[in-house]
Design goal:
With 165 residues, the chain is of the alpha+beta class. The protein folds into two domains: 1-113, SH3 type barrels; 117-165, no CATH class. It is built from four helices and five strands, in the order H-E-H-E-E-E-E-H-H. The protein has helices at 3-9, 30-37, 82-95, 140-160; strands at residues 16-21, 38-44, 48-53, 56-64, 68-73. Strands 4-3-2-1-5 form a five-stranded antiparallel beta sheet. Strand 2 (38-44) and strand 3 (48-53) form a beta hairpin.
Length: 165
């Protein structure tokens, strides 16, 4: 992909978008397609598109650019806003179908900044060193957390390819 294209794709960061990808040997109904292929775009780089689920930011998706056909910005409709209520009513009049939203209790949260992969700013936990006399003490829980933080830091390092900066 050309650098200028990647530059223009940055427009989609922070927006709710549908990602159209090459076909796969799985079929999805409309609701499941939205669950899998509509994301809040968090990052776009030469490898692909990182996104989170529009109403559960703990669910992260990655789309390899070699499989992405297109990306489309979506309109996020809030049924508490008067202008959106009118859009919903107009749609229902035109189609004769009652609209049922995907969101039950909470509207989508679209952060202002990229908050995904902030692992580089985190400090790893320092293993405790209790005094146990002559015996050597190894705090397994702290070592496991340290190993996990180290793995995440290396993954982020690879993701951002910091060697080039």
């Amino acid at each position: 992909m050309k650098p200028r294209t990647l530059e223009h794709l940055q427009y989609f960061i922070g927006k709710v978008c549908s990602i159209v990808a090459t076909s796969m040997n799985r079929s999805f109904d409309e609701k499941i397609s939205r669950e899998h292929f509509v994301v809040i775009v968090r990052e776009i780089d030469a490898d692909g598109i990182w996104g989170t689920h529009p109403y559960n930011s703990d669910l992260v998706s990655f789309f390899s650019l070699e499989h992405v056909i297109s990306i489309h910005q979506e309109e996020v409709i809030d049924p508490t806003k008067p202008e959106h209520i009118e859009m919903i009513k107009e749609f229902e009049r035109n189609t004769g179908k009652k609209v049922q939203g995907d969101l039950k209790n909470s509207p989508p949260v679209i952060p202002e900044k990229k908050e995904l992969f902030n692992i580089l700013k985190e400090k790893p936990p320092v293993p405790s060193n209790p005094s146990t006399g002559d015996a050597t003490f190894v705090d397994i829980d702290s070592l496991e957390r340290l190993a996990e933080d180290t793995r995440r830091a290396f993954d982020s390092y690879d993701l951002y390819d910091l060697r080039k900066t």
